[in-house]
Each structure stands twice: as C-alpha cells, then as structure tokens.
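pinned: reference chain
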Amino acid sequence: MNFKRGFRDKLSKYFNLNRAVEIVLKISGSAVYDFCCFGVDKDEKLSDDRYMIFYNQTESPNKEIKYQMNHNEAKFFIKLNELPDKIQKLIFTVSIDGNGMMSEINSHEMIIRQDNCENISISFNGSDFKQEKAIISVEIYRKGEWRFNIISQGFDGGLDVLLSHYGGEQIFENPPQPQIESKPAEPIKKLKPNQEYKPSAQIKVEQKSEKISLKKGQKISLTKKADDKPIIIENGWSAYGKDYDLKALVRYRDGRLIYIGAANDDEVLSTPEGAVAHGGDIKNAGELENIKIKWHPDIASVAVSSYSALENGTGSFREYGVFVRIINGKQIIEIPAEDTSRNGYSYTLCFGEIIFGNNQNFEVSALEMYSQAHSERRIGYVGDEVRMDIGPVGKVKAKKLKGIFKNIFS
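pinned: its structure tokens
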C-alpha cells in the first residue's frame, strides 16, 4: 500500500508484532550513501550507543535489530517485542557521505514489510528535497503500542550531524594527542557479573572504504598497492528469484581474446597464467559472483559484463537492481545500472573496462553499454574498442534456446 508523507498509524493494523518486521530503505543517485537506525529514549536522545545500528555496528546487543547492506539498499530486521523499555523510538535515516545534495537523487523509497510482503511503502525523487544532506525516512515509536510515522523530510547535515542531533558523540580511531605529562595508566575496570551496563553515547565511526560511483564515460585510476592482493570484481542484484552471470572478456596485447565465466561450456574459469579468475556461479539475490584480477604484462584490458540468465524472462537491469563494483583494497568503484536502462529486452550489460597500464597500474572506465533487444550475442573487441553483440552466443544458452524452439514448434 502506498502512503503519503506525514501518515501515522498503529503497526498492529498491518503486521503481527510478535514476529520480525523489516524496514527497507532504497536510494538511487550518484553519491555514496549511509543508512542508519537510531534507537532513542523518551527524550529522543541516543543514551545507549549500542542502539545506533549502521555500517560500523550491524546488530543491537541482543540482536533485536539487525542490519544488512546491499549496494544502495539497506534492510533492518526488527523484533519490536524484544526491545528494552528504554528504547522508545526507532528513527531510520539515509545520508550522503561526501559531496552531494538530496535534490540530486533519482529516487528514494521506504518500505515496511513482513514475510517479504510489502504492506507500507512510499517513494520520492530529488524534486521533493533541496540542499539537505540526509533524509529522515520513518519513525517507529511507542504510544501505548508500537506506531509508525512516515517523515520523509530532508535534514541539513550528514551522518555526523544526525548523530549530534540525537545526543551522540563521534569519536575517532586515532585522534590527535595533546602533549601532556605522562602518568601511570589506570587499571581497566571490568564489569562484575550481572552489573548493569552504563552507556556512554560515544560512537566510534571508523574510516570507511573510499567509495566512488562512476557514471557512463567516466574513468578513474586505481591506487597502486604495495601488496600483491588481487582486484576483486563483484556482480550482484536485489530481485529475488533472478539470476545474473558475471563475465569477463580478456584482451591480450597480441590480440588473443579469452571469455571468462561460469555458466557456459565455451567459457573458462581462469586465464592460463591465472591473472583473471572467476569465483564460480551464484544464483541467489544478495550473494555475489566475483572475478579476481592481477596485473600481468601480457594482458591489455578486461571488459566486464553481466548477463541475464534465460529463466529471468524479460526485465531490465534497473528493475532488478543489478550492479558491479570493483574493489581495490579500501578503494571501491561502483558502476550502478539502477538509474539507466529500462529496456527489459536487453540481456547483456557491459559495465566497464579495466585497462592494464605498463607499470602495474590500472584504469577503470565506465562504459555502460547494453545489448540490442533480444540479442544473445556476447561482447567482443574491434582493435582496442569494446563492441556489443559481436561475440558468439554461449553454448549452454544456445542449447537451451534450441530446446525451447523445439518444444514450441513440435
């Protein structure tokens, strides 16, 4: 059911509150976003730091609240009947990490559901906001019983200002130390059995990975690392019951091409020297297929694509929340598809290309190219340029299609 901003009601009218309720926050845009649940007291203050649930603290003390993150979608699983009395309200927010304004987003959606059935939902776009850095999406609060209030209003600050607004204090991993006379360290005080926990409302916000979202046509150089750990490419999607296959086309400097994948008979899981290796086929939403890449002097580039499996039927990459991210240590490059093509008949999306430099350097280029409608042909290269629909049809796919046509015309 679609609701309007400012709507309030009893949760028990829509859900069985003796079972877990799920809050889903989704956002589409070019920035990097943080999702958070603030569990506050009767004064709307974060008096117990253990009830701030976000990327750095994904569970409350007794797992009454659990947090899962998948690209630009966050899920909070909540057992309201198990929350302590001191937690009077849960406030769910999404904020921008870094530059950007909420007026620049493509869409924001809030869903409350149970057993994967959506009972409450509301959606907005950038025109509903201004220069704010955050959105307070929804509140769940006690008033005789648990109720909800759809806020969906902009908030001027980011995560740090939200934290301060609710009475928390941000502390850093390695703050600068003043020059003072050293004193003997005091012994650490330990809690005695059954001693009550005394909250501090100090939240340690660790430095996150450096996230960058690339738009079509943009490029970025990957930071050179001292270690020899591989670059990891991950492909995921949010729609249940769907299956996408991560593929890589490796182009050697001598012109050779090798298709890397796990779903077709004419693909291999690894290049001969092991520089590009597939982690195996994954079929479930929320899980990630991956390819690992190490620099090799003979390789010129790797084009990365995602392919819609036959059983998906029609449906766009945007509709099913398909994305690719490239992980290079703490550097994460995301190339989303959720705000681009709506073509449900395009089966292959070439997200981008990793170009191998001469001195163990890499450059990521966001291509975001879609196959023609109903085309089963894979990507290919003409010289050093990636082209759509010029590669062969995968052998497993060809066999399945042949069987389908045989059944139709027999």
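why pinned: The chain has a mean pLDDT of 83. Helices lie at 159-165, 395-409.
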